[in-house]
Design goal:
With 105 residues, the protein is of the alpha+beta class. The protein contains 3 helices and 2 strands. The longest helix is centred in the first third of the chain and has 12 residues.
Length: 105
């Protein structure tokens, strides 16, 4: 019912940003999570999903060997209100990223 990143994770991203270093956040999860300040505190953000044995592909993107590709198969909620069914979402908050979003948009 609540898909917020753990407070400790958000705090870690914010602490790294306050140190003045570039921050690349890599989210490894099986679903979109509510990112909150972690996204705003990141200079770059990569949703790696669950790479399994393909972690090398994530490293290839992080080191610039390949451009990240893909489209979101469903919208990425901005907050927990966005977790409602599609029929109810028209009255809920706008998604953080719409279905089909990609860096090529």
């Amino acid at each position: 019912m609540d898909l917020h990143l753990a407070d400790a994770d958000v705090t870690l991203v914010e602490k790294a940003k306050s140190a003045g270093v570039p921050v690349v956040t890599v989210l490894i999860s099986g679903r979109p999570l509510i990112l909150g300040n972690a996204l705003e505190s990141s200079d770059a953000f990569l949703a790696a999903w669950l790479p399994g044995t393909e972690g090398q592909g994530v490293a290839d993107v992080l080191f610039g060997d390949y451009k990240p590709t893909g489209k979101l198969p469903r919208q990425w909620p901005r907050n927990n209100d966005g977790l409602a069914t599609a029929a109810m979402q028209s009255s809920m908050s706008a998604p953080l990223f719409p279905q089909g979003f990609s860096m090529d948009n």
